[in-house]
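User: tokens in, sequence out, please.
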């Protein structure tokens, strides 16, 4: 059990863009291992991040433990200790009166400037590979949550036929695709409604009525004294 660990900037860069729940699990896994030597049972992206930073934590912890021991152990020393400097004018401070023995302090100058072996690009590639096509129930649930009324089965069929590609790129966020789909449906609905309203005013013209013949017929009826029943 340790009181602290070194949390590098590269660790933070690797996890800062994760969803909140994944961020929490990943940081918790790093801290549990670094402080308590508890290797967590992780899955998904948090496991990948943990495996990338684990060697760095192990290296730092080894240096910490070596510092606590004060370097190489001298329990098997067979020679004599070096005599004090005869020109020494001061004395070292004695242990506290109630201290039964001295204990070497941890080496505070432990070198922690080791290479950061966490590649942020590796994390990004893992995140991209995590996309999984939604099920029909996923899409229906999201549409109900957002108040959309799209044909969810048509949405699934459309993108499955395209291999879940958006243009030339692999889809990264199916919820964004649902929102775009709903927006396009709405625009198409407005266009169709406008077209139907416009056609109502042209239905009479679409009967192909011969207006000239109709006018001539009414004039002839009036001149001949006939009733205009047309």
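Assistant: Sequence out:
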């Amino acid at each position: 059990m340790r009181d602290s660990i070194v949390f590098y900037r590269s660790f933070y860069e690797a996890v800062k863009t994760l969803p909140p729940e994944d961020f929490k699990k990943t940081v918790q896994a790093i801290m549990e291992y670094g402080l308590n030597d508890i290797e967590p049972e992780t899955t998904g992206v948090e496991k990948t991040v943990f495996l990338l930073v684990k060697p760095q934590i192990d290296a730092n912890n080894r240096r910490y433990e070596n510092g606590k021991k004060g370097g190489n152990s001298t329990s098997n020393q067979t020679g004599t200790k070096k005599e004090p400097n005869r020109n020494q004018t001061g004395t070292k401070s004695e242990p506290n009166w109630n201290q039964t023995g001295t204990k070497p302090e941890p080496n505070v100058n432990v070198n922690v400037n080791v290479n950061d072996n966490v590649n942020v690009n590796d994390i990004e590639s893992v995140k991209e590979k995590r996309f999984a096509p939604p099920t029909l129930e996923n899409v229906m649930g999201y549409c109900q949550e957002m108040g959309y009324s799209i044909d969810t089965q048509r949405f699934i069929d459309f993108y499955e036929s395209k291999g879940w590609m958006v243009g030339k790129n692999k889809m990264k966020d199916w919820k964004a695709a649902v929102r775009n789909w709903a927006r396009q449906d709405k625009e198409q609905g407005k266009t169709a409604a406008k077209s139907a309203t416009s056609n109502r005013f042209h239905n009479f013209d679409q009967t192909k009525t011969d207006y000239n013949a109709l006018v001539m017929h009414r004039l002839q009826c009036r001149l001949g004294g006939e009733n205009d029943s047309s």
